[in-house]
């Protein structure tokens, strides 16, 4: 769908130290309106992802399907997820963010409809395939749209808010969707999410606009950032092979991969684990999941001002956001491995909370470190590549867990295997992130200017 002419006024430009045109003036009001819309977009996104896991028990009973079949249905969401994120990323410089996000959310609503017509395994698979294809680009492209409204040095808080949409989506979806499933049947949850997606699409079409911070600087008077921090200019283009093989991008992908493994387990299997292994009621499991998501939200909001402040003061991006994201995944991975061995009660709930919340800080930070080594004109494509690589766990974790559950003597043993595998993967990914993310070094090697050192 072609983009209609934007009603926003042309951006006002500031003057740099040499008297040339520099960055556009920061439009706080418009920037935060767009941020609010994008946070809502992410809330819907993660509510869509969570609904199948929250409805797992009644769906499995009604359709008489095994753990393995359910795991494959859940994994079908990820079949086109990474590919679509990758492809859309390379078109991000040619299509406005307004159009991309509008179309994505519109398709989300449509993807919920097949199962309302015929409740069967094939329609569940089709719906999840379409949903995954439409949601694959959601996080990187909404982050790309957000970066168009905030200059370097102001991106920490909006980035954290955007990622916190995942926590808020689960935080709000768990009790609301569980209530819909319990009182009105599991189909009602799919119907409500479809309607919500359509309403957001209409709101975004009228209020969402592309920001001014993707404009290419003049060759005569290159733009200079008014804020200290990692500025990714200096060359017009870097070969993607060099970008994808640099340590900072590999480390950013690794932290995303480790964090997404925990998230995939949470969305597909955590509700069932709480119900069957910890004997929680539907409401109790929903409250526990909301508490885990609440911790993720607190971590994201508490961390972002610190990262922004450190970046503006000239602290290296490696120290401000590279090391923390790796440590977050490491800590979550260690907790994941302990879940089956700490016994029941409050201690186990605390360990589960750390395992499924501590990794969340990696999600906004890995975009910041990846953005520090790429020219703005290639940022959307790189974000698509990073997201596509980092979200592969959505294809692997649910189906492998289903296999463990069906092949083990007990479901407890199956979950122990699943948590053990997740722990190893997350610890390795966290270590890779800690040692490989060095934005200033990699930016210098590729000829991209980076102010922060580290």
Give structural notes:
Helix 12 crosses helix 18 and helix 12 runs antiparallel to helix 20. It is globular and about 60 Å long. A two-stranded antiparallel sheet has the order 1-2. 71% of the residues lie in helices and 2% in strands. The N terminus and C terminus are likely disordered. With 454 residues, the protein is mainly α. It has one domain: MFS general substrate transporter like domains (Growth Hormone, Chain: A). A hairpin with a 5-residue loop joins strand 1 and strand 2. The longest helix is centred in the middle third of the chain and has 31 residues. It contains 21 helices and 2 strands.
Short descriptors:
single chain, 454 residues, mainly alpha, Growth Hormone, Chain: A, 2 strands, disordered N terminus, disordered C terminus
CATH topology: Growth Hormone, Chain: A
Structural class, by secondary structure, is mainly alpha
Can you name the CATH architecture? Up-down Bundle
- List low-confidence stretches: 1-21, 215-234, 450-454
User: What is the helix tally?
Assistant: 21
Proportion of beta-strand residues: under 5%
Assign an overall shape: globular
CATH H-level superfamily = MFS general substrate transporter like domains
Element order, helices and strands? EEHHHHHHHHHHHHHHHHHHHHH
Could you give a short account of the major beta sheet?
2 strands, antiparallel
Question: What is the CA-atom radius of gyration, in angstroms?
Answer: 22 Å
Please tell me the total number of domains.
1
Mean pLDDT: 80
Strand order of the largest sheet: 1-2
Kindly state the percentage of residues in helix. over 70%
Q: Give the N-terminus to C-terminus distance in angstroms.
A: 44 Å
CATH class identity: Mainly Alpha
DSSP strand tally: 2
């Amino acid at each position: 769908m072609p983009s209609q002419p934007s009603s926003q006024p042309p951006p006002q430009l500031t003057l740099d130290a040499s008297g040339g045109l520099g960055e556009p003036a920061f439009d706080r009001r418009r920037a935060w309106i767009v941020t609010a819309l994008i946070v809502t977009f992410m809330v819907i996104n993660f509510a869509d992802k969570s609904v199948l896991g929250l409805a797992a028990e009644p769906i499995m009973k009604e359709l008489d399907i095994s753990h393995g079949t359910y795991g494959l249905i859940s994994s079908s969401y990820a079949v086109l997820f990474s590919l679509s994120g990758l492809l859309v990323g390379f078109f991000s410089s040619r299509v406005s963010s307004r159009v991309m996000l509008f179309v994505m959310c519109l398709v989300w609503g449509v993807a919920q409809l097949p199962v309302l017509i015929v409740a069967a395994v094939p329609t569940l698979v089709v719906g999840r395939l379409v949903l995954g294809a439409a949601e694959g680009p959601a996080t990187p492209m909404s982050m790309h749209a957000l970066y168009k409204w905030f200059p370097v040095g102001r991106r920490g808080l909006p980035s954290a808010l955007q990622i916190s949409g995942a926590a808020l989506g689960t935080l709000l979806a768990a009790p609301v969707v569980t209530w819909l499933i319990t009182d009105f049947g599991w189909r009602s949850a799919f119907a409500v999410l479809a309607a919500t997606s359509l309403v957001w699409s209409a709101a975004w079409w009228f209020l969402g606009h592309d920001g001014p911070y993707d404009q290419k600087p003049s060759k005569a008077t290159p733009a200079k950032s008014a804020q200290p921090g990692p500025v990714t200019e200096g060359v017009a283009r870097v070969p993607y092979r060099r970008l994808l093989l640099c340590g900072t991008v590999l480390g950013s992908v690794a932290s995303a991969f480790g964090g997404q493994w925990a998230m995939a387990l949470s969305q597909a299997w955590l509700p069932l684990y709480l119900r069957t292994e910890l004997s929680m009621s539907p409401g109790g499991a929903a409250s526990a999941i909301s508490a885990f998501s609440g911790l993720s939200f607190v971590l994201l909001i508490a961390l972002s001002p610190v990262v922004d402040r450190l970046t503006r003061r000239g602290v290296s991006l490696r120290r401000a956001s590279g090391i923390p994201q790796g440590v977050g995944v490491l800590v979550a991975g260690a907790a994941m491995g302990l879940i089956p061995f700490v016994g029941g009660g409050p201690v186990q709930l605390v360990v589960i909370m750390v395992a499924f919340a501590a990794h969340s800080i990696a999600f906004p930070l890995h975009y910041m470190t990846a953005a520090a080594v790429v020219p703005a004109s290639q940022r959307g494509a790189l974000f698509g590549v990073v997201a596509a690589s980092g979200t592969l766990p959505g294809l692997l974790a649910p189906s492998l867990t289903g296999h463990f559950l069906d092949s083990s003597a007990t479901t407890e043993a199956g979950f122990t295997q699943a948590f053990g595998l997740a722990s190893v993967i997350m610890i390795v990914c966290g270590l890779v992130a800690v040692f490989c993310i060095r934005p200033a070094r990699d930016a210098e090697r590729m000829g991209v200017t980076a102010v922060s050192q580290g």
